[in-house]
Amino acid sequence: MAVWSDWFNKLWDCLVMKEEDILEGSYNDYEMVEQAKKELEQARNLFTRVEDPDMVEYAVYNLKAAEKRFDYLIKRLKKPGNTG
Known about the structure:
By secondary structure, the chain is mainly alpha-helical. The chain has one domain. It has four helices and no strands. The protein starts with a helix and ends in a 6-residue tail after the last helix.
């Protein structure tokens, strides 16, 4: 279990935007939505593949978080006056 967790954390660090980059404005809104879409796809993929009960719980949590982030960014883009 620990090996899977370590491997997943290293993979996640490579794929997910760094908070510092977001705060510094290194990404525009459309890039953030594309990244969130990729994270959502990865979360769905993980959810469909896990079998261990502990990992299922993690996959559900991860999927919900990815969905919330994607929904938030879409709403933010739809706001009037948003230039991206």
